[in-house]
Automatic annotation (TrEMBL):
GGDEF domain boundaries: 320-454
Cofactor(s) demanded: Mg(2+)
Recorded catalytic activity of this chain's protein: 2 GTP = 3',3'-c-di-GMP + 2 diphosphate
Gene3D superfamilies the UniProt entry points to: 3.30.70.270
SMART domains: GGDEF
Superkingdom assignment: Bacteria
Enzyme Commission number(s): 2.7.7.65
Enzyme class: transferase
Keyword Membrane: yes
Protein's UniProt name: diguanylate cyclase
Functional pathway: Purine metabolism; 3',5'-cyclic di-GMP biosynthesis
Keywords per UniProt: GTP-binding, Membrane, Nucleotide-binding, Transmembrane, Transmembrane helix
Protein backbone atom coordinates (compact mmCIF):
# COMPACT_ATOMS: atom_id res chain seq x y z
CA UNK A 1 0.00 0.00 0.00
CA UNK A 2 2.85 2.34 0.82
CA UNK A 3 4.47 1.64 -2.53
CA UNK A 4 1.17 2.20 -4.30
CA UNK A 5 0.77 5.64 -2.74
CA UNK A 6 4.46 6.34 -3.24
CA UNK A 7 4.75 7.45 0.36
CA UNK A 8 8.33 8.67 0.93
CA UNK A 9 8.78 6.79 4.19
CA UNK A 10 12.55 6.73 3.93
CA UNK A 11 12.75 10.52 3.46
CA UNK A 12 10.52 11.12 6.46
CA UNK A 13 12.56 8.77 8.62
CA UNK A 14 15.74 10.58 7.58
CA UNK A 15 14.10 13.94 8.31
CA UNK A 16 12.85 12.98 11.77
CA UNK A 17 16.22 11.45 12.61
CA UNK A 18 18.01 14.65 11.56
CA UNK A 19 15.52 16.76 13.54
CA UNK A 20 15.91 14.74 16.72
CA UNK A 21 19.69 14.61 16.58
CA UNK A 22 20.06 18.20 15.39
CA UNK A 23 17.68 19.71 17.94
CA UNK A 24 19.20 17.74 20.82
CA UNK A 25 22.73 18.82 19.88
CA UNK A 26 21.79 22.46 19.25
CA UNK A 27 19.75 22.65 22.44
CA UNK A 28 22.54 21.11 24.52
CA UNK A 29 25.05 23.51 23.02
CA UNK A 30 22.78 26.53 23.62
CA UNK A 31 22.02 25.54 27.20
CA UNK A 32 25.69 24.90 27.95
CA UNK A 33 26.73 28.37 26.75
CA UNK A 34 23.94 30.21 28.59
CA UNK A 35 24.32 28.37 31.90
CA UNK A 36 28.11 28.55 31.94
CA UNK A 37 28.18 32.26 31.19
CA UNK A 38 25.22 33.62 33.20
CA UNK A 39 26.71 37.10 33.59
CA UNK A 40 26.80 37.79 29.87
CA UNK A 41 23.50 36.05 29.02
CA UNK A 42 21.40 39.30 29.12
CA UNK A 43 24.00 41.11 27.02
CA UNK A 44 24.11 38.17 24.63
CA UNK A 45 20.44 38.57 23.69
CA UNK A 46 20.73 41.81 21.66
CA UNK A 47 23.99 40.59 20.13
CA UNK A 48 22.32 37.38 18.98
CA UNK A 49 19.39 39.43 17.70
CA UNK A 50 21.77 41.41 15.51
CA UNK A 51 23.34 38.25 14.14
CA UNK A 52 19.90 36.75 13.55
CA UNK A 53 18.80 39.92 11.75
CA UNK A 54 21.79 39.70 9.40
CA UNK A 55 21.23 35.97 8.81
CA UNK A 56 17.56 36.49 7.94
CA UNK A 57 18.44 39.34 5.58
CA UNK A 58 20.95 37.03 3.86
CA UNK A 59 18.38 34.27 3.46
CA UNK A 60 15.86 36.77 2.04
CA UNK A 61 18.43 37.98 -0.50
CA UNK A 62 19.24 34.38 -1.40
CA UNK A 63 15.56 33.60 -2.08
CA UNK A 64 15.16 36.72 -4.21
CA UNK A 65 18.20 35.76 -6.31
CA UNK A 66 16.88 32.23 -6.84
CA UNK A 67 13.49 33.60 -7.90
CA UNK A 68 15.11 36.10 -10.27
CA UNK A 69 16.99 33.23 -11.93
CA UNK A 70 13.86 31.11 -12.36
CA UNK A 71 10.49 32.87 -12.33
CA UNK A 72 8.73 29.52 -12.02
CA UNK A 73 9.91 29.42 -8.41
CA UNK A 74 7.28 31.89 -7.30
CA UNK A 75 6.93 29.95 -4.05
CA UNK A 76 10.28 31.39 -2.96
CA UNK A 77 8.92 34.94 -2.76
CA UNK A 78 6.77 34.41 0.37
CA UNK A 79 9.81 32.92 2.09
CA UNK A 80 11.90 35.88 0.97
CA UNK A 81 9.33 38.32 2.42
CA UNK A 82 9.12 36.22 5.59
CA UNK A 83 12.83 36.53 6.30
CA UNK A 84 13.02 40.16 5.12
CA UNK A 85 10.12 41.12 7.38
CA UNK A 86 11.67 39.15 10.21
CA UNK A 87 14.92 41.08 9.83
CA UNK A 88 13.02 44.38 10.00
CA UNK A 89 11.09 43.31 13.10
CA UNK A 90 14.37 42.53 14.82
CA UNK A 91 15.20 46.21 14.58
CA UNK A 92 12.19 46.76 16.81
CA UNK A 93 13.49 44.09 19.15
CA UNK A 94 16.81 45.91 19.41
CA UNK A 95 14.90 49.13 20.12
CA UNK A 96 13.59 47.41 23.24
CA UNK A 97 17.15 47.47 24.62
CA UNK A 98 17.93 51.23 24.60
CA UNK A 99 20.73 51.01 27.18
CA UNK A 100 22.55 48.46 25.07
CA UNK A 101 22.96 50.99 22.27
CA UNK A 102 24.40 53.49 24.72
CA UNK A 103 26.77 50.84 26.17
CA UNK A 104 25.44 51.58 29.69
CA UNK A 105 24.30 48.07 30.56
CA UNK A 106 20.79 46.62 30.42
CA UNK A 107 19.01 48.44 33.24
CA UNK A 108 16.08 49.32 30.99
CA UNK A 109 14.55 46.54 28.91
CA UNK A 110 11.04 46.52 27.49
CA UNK A 111 10.45 42.77 27.49
CA UNK A 112 6.81 43.21 26.51
CA UNK A 113 7.75 44.98 23.28
CA UNK A 114 10.36 42.33 22.61
CA UNK A 115 7.77 39.58 22.90
CA UNK A 116 5.27 41.56 20.80
CA UNK A 117 7.79 41.76 17.96
CA UNK A 118 8.56 38.07 18.44
CA UNK A 119 4.85 37.21 18.31
CA UNK A 120 4.14 39.13 15.09
CA UNK A 121 7.36 37.81 13.55
CA UNK A 122 6.24 34.23 14.13
CA UNK A 123 2.70 34.93 12.85
CA UNK A 124 4.07 36.53 9.70
CA UNK A 125 6.68 33.84 8.96
CA UNK A 126 4.37 30.89 9.65
CA UNK A 127 1.61 32.24 7.36
CA UNK A 128 4.09 33.06 4.61
CA UNK A 129 5.66 29.60 4.87
CA UNK A 130 2.19 28.06 4.49
CA UNK A 131 1.48 30.30 1.50
CA UNK A 132 4.83 29.29 -0.04
CA UNK A 133 3.80 25.63 0.18
CA UNK A 134 0.45 26.47 -1.49
CA UNK A 135 2.27 28.19 -4.36
CA UNK A 136 4.62 25.21 -4.64
CA UNK A 137 1.60 22.90 -4.98
CA UNK A 138 0.39 24.97 -7.97
CA UNK A 139 3.81 25.58 -9.54
CA UNK A 140 2.98 23.56 -12.66
CA UNK A 141 -0.32 25.30 -13.27
CA UNK A 142 -0.81 28.10 -15.79
CA UNK A 143 -0.09 30.83 -13.28
CA UNK A 144 3.30 32.09 -14.39
CA UNK A 145 2.27 35.30 -16.07
CA UNK A 146 3.40 38.81 -15.28
CA UNK A 147 -0.08 39.78 -14.09
CA UNK A 148 -0.48 36.85 -11.70
CA UNK A 149 3.04 37.25 -10.34
CA UNK A 150 2.41 40.96 -9.77
CA UNK A 151 -0.86 40.31 -7.93
CA UNK A 152 0.72 37.67 -5.71
CA UNK A 153 3.80 39.76 -4.96
CA UNK A 154 1.68 42.83 -4.14
CA UNK A 155 -0.51 40.70 -1.87
CA UNK A 156 2.51 39.29 -0.04
CA UNK A 157 4.01 42.75 0.29
CA UNK A 158 0.79 44.20 1.74
CA UNK A 159 0.50 41.32 4.22
CA UNK A 160 4.13 41.79 5.32
CA UNK A 161 3.71 45.54 5.67
CA UNK A 162 0.51 44.95 7.64
CA UNK A 163 2.34 42.71 10.10
CA UNK A 164 5.14 45.24 10.44
CA UNK A 165 2.67 48.06 11.06
CA UNK A 166 0.64 46.11 13.63
CA UNK A 167 3.74 45.07 15.54
CA UNK A 168 4.94 48.68 15.60
CA UNK A 169 1.59 50.05 16.78
CA UNK A 170 1.12 47.43 19.51
CA UNK A 171 4.66 47.83 20.82
CA UNK A 172 4.20 51.00 22.92
CA UNK A 173 3.97 53.28 19.89
CA UNK A 174 0.20 53.80 19.77
CA UNK A 175 -1.84 54.33 22.91
CA UNK A 176 -5.12 52.98 21.52
CA UNK A 177 -3.55 49.61 20.66
CA UNK A 178 -1.79 47.71 23.41
CA UNK A 179 -1.36 44.15 24.57
CA UNK A 180 0.44 42.73 27.57
CA UNK A 181 2.51 39.61 27.08
CA UNK A 182 5.03 40.39 29.82
CA UNK A 183 4.83 42.44 33.02
CA UNK A 184 7.87 44.71 32.71
CA UNK A 185 8.00 45.14 36.49
CA UNK A 186 8.02 41.46 37.48
CA UNK A 187 9.14 40.03 34.11
CA UNK A 188 6.35 37.43 34.40
CA UNK A 189 4.55 36.17 31.32
CA UNK A 190 0.85 37.01 31.31
CA UNK A 191 -1.95 34.48 30.99
CA UNK A 192 -2.65 35.79 27.49
CA UNK A 193 0.76 34.58 26.33
CA UNK A 194 1.11 31.42 28.40
CA UNK A 195 -2.37 30.00 27.90
CA UNK A 196 -3.39 31.29 24.49
CA UNK A 197 -1.13 33.07 22.06
CA UNK A 198 1.98 30.98 22.65
CA UNK A 199 0.06 27.82 21.79
CA UNK A 200 -1.44 29.52 18.73
CA UNK A 201 2.07 30.17 17.43
CA UNK A 202 3.02 26.55 18.01
CA UNK A 203 -0.12 25.41 16.18
CA UNK A 204 0.69 27.66 13.21
CA UNK A 205 4.21 26.29 12.90
CA UNK A 206 2.87 22.73 13.21
CA UNK A 207 0.48 23.47 10.31
CA UNK A 208 3.37 24.91 8.28
CA UNK A 209 5.49 21.83 9.02
CA UNK A 210 2.69 19.40 8.09
CA UNK A 211 2.03 21.35 4.90
CA UNK A 212 5.70 21.04 3.88
CA UNK A 213 5.78 17.32 4.68
CA UNK A 214 2.53 16.49 2.88
CA UNK A 215 2.81 18.74 -0.18
CA UNK A 216 6.53 18.70 -0.94
CA UNK A 217 7.23 15.22 0.48
CA UNK A 218 10.76 16.52 1.13
CA UNK A 219 11.76 15.90 -2.48
CA UNK A 220 14.88 18.08 -2.26
CA UNK A 221 17.31 19.53 0.26
CA UNK A 222 15.56 22.92 0.19
CA UNK A 223 12.36 21.54 1.67
CA UNK A 224 14.37 19.42 4.10
CA UNK A 225 15.87 22.65 5.42
CA UNK A 226 12.45 24.36 5.47
CA UNK A 227 10.91 21.54 7.47
CA UNK A 228 13.86 21.52 9.87
CA UNK A 229 13.46 25.29 10.30
CA UNK A 230 9.78 24.83 11.26
CA UNK A 231 10.70 22.12 13.74
CA UNK A 232 13.32 24.40 15.31
CA UNK A 233 10.81 27.21 15.74
CA UNK A 234 8.32 24.84 17.33
CA UNK A 235 10.99 23.68 19.77
CA UNK A 236 12.07 27.30 20.42
CA UNK A 237 8.52 28.24 21.39
CA UNK A 238 8.22 25.21 23.66
CA UNK A 239 11.48 26.18 25.38
CA UNK A 240 10.32 29.77 25.75
CA UNK A 241 6.96 28.75 27.23
CA UNK A 242 8.57 26.38 29.70
CA UNK A 243 9.58 29.39 31.79
CA UNK A 244 7.20 31.64 33.63
CA UNK A 245 9.15 34.85 33.18
CA UNK A 246 11.16 36.63 30.49
CA UNK A 247 14.33 37.22 32.52
CA UNK A 248 15.13 33.53 32.93
CA UNK A 249 17.76 31.49 31.16
CA UNK A 250 15.17 29.98 28.79
CA UNK A 251 14.59 33.40 27.20
CA UNK A 252 18.26 33.69 26.21
CA UNK A 253 18.57 30.00 25.48
CA UNK A 254 15.65 30.18 23.02
CA UNK A 255 17.26 33.09 21.16
CA UNK A 256 20.65 31.34 20.99
CA UNK A 257 19.00 28.15 19.76
CA UNK A 258 17.11 30.14 17.11
CA UNK A 259 20.34 31.81 15.96
CA UNK A 260 22.29 28.57 15.72
CA UNK A 261 19.47 26.79 13.86
CA UNK A 262 19.34 29.71 11.39
CA UNK A 263 23.09 29.35 10.84
CA UNK A 264 22.46 25.68 10.10
CA UNK A 265 19.77 26.69 7.59
CA UNK A 266 22.22 29.03 5.85
CA UNK A 267 24.74 26.19 5.69
CA UNK A 268 22.14 23.94 4.06
CA UNK A 269 21.25 26.66 1.55
CA UNK A 270 24.92 27.10 0.71
CA UNK A 271 25.13 23.35 0.13
CA UNK A 272 22.11 23.70 -2.15
CA UNK A 273 23.90 26.46 -4.07
CA UNK A 274 27.00 24.27 -4.39
CA UNK A 275 24.87 21.36 -5.64
CA UNK A 276 23.15 23.57 -8.21
CA UNK A 277 26.51 24.96 -9.31
CA UNK A 278 27.96 21.49 -9.70
CA UNK A 279 24.94 20.34 -11.71
CA UNK A 280 25.09 23.46 -13.86
CA UNK A 281 28.82 23.01 -14.42
CA UNK A 282 28.30 19.35 -15.34
CA UNK A 283 25.59 20.32 -17.83
CA UNK A 284 27.82 23.03 -19.24
CA UNK A 285 30.76 20.67 -19.66
CA UNK A 286 28.50 18.09 -21.26
CA UNK A 287 27.11 20.73 -23.61
CA UNK A 288 30.60 22.01 -24.40
CA UNK A 289 31.88 18.52 -25.17
CA UNK A 290 28.88 17.94 -27.44
CA UNK A 291 29.74 21.14 -29.29
CA UNK A 292 33.34 20.09 -30.02
CA UNK A 293 32.89 16.34 -30.47
CA UNK A 294 31.66 14.31 -33.41
CA UNK A 295 28.54 12.50 -32.13
CA UNK A 296 29.29 9.22 -33.95
CA UNK A 297 32.96 8.75 -33.09
CA UNK A 298 33.50 11.11 -30.12
CA UNK A 299 36.58 12.41 -31.92
CA UNK A 300 36.92 16.19 -32.13
CA UNK A 301 34.96 17.84 -34.92
CA UNK A 302 36.21 19.93 -37.82
CA UNK A 303 35.63 23.28 -36.12
CA UNK A 304 37.58 22.32 -33.00
CA UNK A 305 40.40 20.93 -35.13
CA UNK A 306 40.89 24.22 -36.98
CA UNK A 307 40.50 26.34 -33.84
CA UNK A 308 43.11 24.28 -32.01
CA UNK A 309 45.48 24.30 -34.96
CA UNK A 310 45.21 28.10 -35.17
CA UNK A 311 45.89 28.43 -31.44
CA UNK A 312 48.95 26.14 -31.65
CA UNK A 313 50.57 27.77 -34.68
CA UNK A 314 52.59 30.28 -32.61
CA UNK A 315 54.51 27.29 -31.19
CA UNK A 316 56.09 26.87 -34.63
CA UNK A 317 57.89 30.21 -34.16
CA UNK A 318 59.67 28.73 -31.13
CA UNK A 319 61.13 25.91 -33.23
CA UNK A 320 58.47 23.35 -32.31
CA UNK A 321 57.11 21.66 -35.47
CA UNK A 322 53.46 20.75 -35.89
CA UNK A 323 52.52 17.88 -38.17
CA UNK A 324 49.15 17.34 -39.83
CA UNK A 325 47.97 13.94 -41.03
CA UNK A 326 44.90 13.82 -43.25
CA UNK A 327 43.49 10.35 -43.98
CA UNK A 328 40.61 8.85 -45.89
CA UNK A 329 39.22 5.30 -45.92
CA UNK A 330 39.68 3.47 -49.21
CA UNK A 331 36.59 2.35 -51.13
CA UNK A 332 34.30 3.28 -48.22
CA UNK A 333 31.33 3.88 -50.54
CA UNK A 334 31.43 0.21 -51.45
CA UNK A 335 31.15 -0.70 -47.75
CA UNK A 336 28.01 1.43 -47.41
CA UNK A 337 26.48 0.13 -50.62
CA UNK A 338 27.22 -3.53 -49.88
CA UNK A 339 26.65 -3.75 -46.11
CA UNK A 340 24.50 -0.71 -45.34
CA UNK A 341 25.08 2.56 -43.56
CA UNK A 342 24.76 1.01 -40.10
CA UNK A 343 27.70 -1.24 -40.81
CA UNK A 344 29.48 1.72 -42.36
CA UNK A 345 29.10 3.61 -39.07
CA UNK A 346 30.66 0.69 -37.22
CA UNK A 347 33.65 0.82 -39.56
CA UNK A 348 34.10 4.54 -38.93
CA UNK A 349 33.87 3.98 -35.18
CA UNK A 350 36.46 1.22 -35.33
CA UNK A 351 38.91 3.36 -37.31
CA UNK A 352 38.31 6.28 -34.96
CA UNK A 353 39.25 4.10 -32.00
CA UNK A 354 42.50 3.11 -33.71
CA UNK A 355 43.32 6.76 -34.42
CA UNK A 356 42.55 7.87 -30.86
CA UNK A 357 44.69 5.10 -29.37
CA UNK A 358 47.61 5.97 -31.64
CA UNK A 359 48.12 9.59 -30.59
CA UNK A 360 49.35 11.26 -27.41
CA UNK A 361 47.12 13.02 -24.91
CA UNK A 362 48.03 16.51 -26.10
CA UNK A 363 47.53 15.59 -29.79
CA UNK A 364 44.22 16.10 -31.58
CA UNK A 365 42.33 13.37 -33.46
CA UNK A 366 39.36 14.71 -35.42
CA UNK A 367 36.75 13.61 -37.91
CA UNK A 368 36.60 16.35 -40.54
CA UNK A 369 34.35 14.65 -43.08
CA UNK A 370 32.29 11.53 -43.75
CA UNK A 371 35.16 9.03 -43.82
CA UNK A 372 37.92 11.62 -43.61
CA UNK A 373 40.04 12.10 -40.49
CA UNK A 374 42.80 14.45 -39.40
CA UNK A 375 45.50 14.24 -36.76
CA UNK A 376 47.33 17.19 -35.21
CA UNK A 377 50.70 16.16 -33.75
CA UNK A 378 52.39 18.81 -31.62
CA UNK A 379 56.20 18.75 -31.62
CA UNK A 380 56.36 15.90 -34.14
CA UNK A 381 58.86 16.17 -36.98
CA UNK A 382 58.07 14.96 -40.48
CA UNK A 383 59.81 11.61 -39.90
CA UNK A 384 58.02 11.06 -36.59
CA UNK A 385 54.66 11.93 -38.12
CA UNK A 386 55.30 9.59 -41.04
CA UNK A 387 56.13 6.78 -38.61
CA UNK A 388 52.91 7.34 -36.66
CA UNK A 389 50.88 7.39 -39.86
CA UNK A 390 52.50 4.18 -41.08
CA UNK A 391 51.79 2.49 -37.74
CA UNK A 392 48.11 3.49 -37.99
CA UNK A 393 47.90 2.29 -41.60
CA UNK A 394 49.30 -1.12 -40.71
CA UNK A 395 47.06 -1.42 -37.64
CA UNK A 396 43.95 -0.85 -39.76
CA UNK A 397 45.01 -2.95 -42.74
CA UNK A 398 45.81 -5.94 -40.53
CA UNK A 399 42.26 -6.18 -39.16
CA UNK A 400 39.45 -8.34 -40.50
CA UNK A 401 35.93 -9.29 -39.42
CA UNK A 402 37.12 -11.78 -36.80
CA UNK A 403 39.86 -9.67 -35.19
CA UNK A 404 37.63 -6.56 -35.13
CA UNK A 405 34.76 -8.49 -33.50
CA UNK A 406 32.53 -7.95 -36.56
CA UNK A 407 33.01 -4.18 -36.60
CA UNK A 408 34.74 -4.61 -39.95
CA UNK A 409 32.74 -6.75 -42.38
CA UNK A 410 35.92 -7.23 -44.42
CA UNK A 411 39.53 -5.94 -44.40
CA UNK A 412 39.75 -2.21 -45.04
CA UNK A 413 42.62 0.14 -45.86
CA UNK A 414 43.35 3.81 -45.39
CA UNK A 415 45.33 6.40 -47.36
CA UNK A 416 47.21 9.09 -45.43
CA UNK A 417 48.96 12.35 -46.26
CA UNK A 418 51.46 14.14 -44.00
CA UNK A 419 52.59 17.75 -43.85
CA UNK A 420 54.82 19.34 -41.20
CA UNK A 421 54.76 23.07 -40.47
CA UNK A 422 58.17 24.39 -39.42
CA UNK A 423 57.64 28.16 -39.86
CA UNK A 424 54.82 30.70 -39.94
CA UNK A 425 54.98 31.36 -43.68
CA UNK A 426 52.30 28.69 -44.25
CA UNK A 427 48.91 29.36 -42.66
CA UNK A 428 46.61 26.76 -41.12
CA UNK A 429 44.38 26.32 -44.17
CA UNK A 430 47.39 25.81 -46.43
CA UNK A 431 48.90 23.25 -44.03
CA UNK A 432 45.72 21.18 -44.13
CA UNK A 433 45.46 21.60 -47.91
CA UNK A 434 49.00 20.27 -48.41
CA UNK A 435 48.34 17.26 -46.15
CA UNK A 436 45.11 16.66 -48.06
CA UNK A 437 46.97 16.87 -51.36
CA UNK A 438 49.53 14.34 -50.11
CA UNK A 439 46.65 12.04 -49.15
CA UNK A 440 45.22 12.24 -52.70
CA UNK A 441 48.66 11.39 -54.07
CA UNK A 442 48.53 8.26 -51.91
CA UNK A 443 45.15 7.44 -53.45
CA UNK A 444 46.51 7.93 -56.96
CA UNK A 445 49.54 5.79 -56.18
CA UNK A 446 47.38 2.78 -55.37
CA UNK A 447 45.85 3.57 -51.93
CA UNK A 448 46.75 1.92 -48.61
CA UNK A 449 49.88 4.01 -48.17
CA UNK A 450 51.38 7.11 -46.51
CA UNK A 451 52.67 10.03 -48.55
CA UNK A 452 54.62 12.97 -47.14
CA UNK A 453 54.06 16.32 -48.87
CA UNK A 454 57.11 17.62 -50.69
Amino acid sequence: MLMKLKFPLQRFLVYFTICIIGIVILNHFSAAIIHRTPTIAPLLFPILTMFLMVFHAMIAAFMVMKYSCDKHRLYLTPIAFAFAGSAILMLGTLDSFPDWFMCTGLTRVNYNDTLIFYFFRNIMMAFLFIFAVILYAFKKREMHTFKIHTIILVGILLFTLGMLLLSWLYSSHYELLSVDFVDNNTYQFTQLWGNQLGWILIALWVIALLAILVVTQLNNIFWYSGAFFCACYIFTLIVLMSSGHSAGYTWYEARLFETISTMFLILVLLCDVFTLYRQSNTRYMHSYQNSIRDPLTQLFNRSYFYDTFTALMPKVATGQPISVIVSDLDHFKRINDKYGHLQGDKVIQFVSKVLQDSVRQNDVAARIGGEEFALLLVGASSDVAEGIAERIRVAIASQDAESSQSQLPEPITISMGVFTATDLTVNVEECVRRADEAMYRAKEAGRNRVVVWE
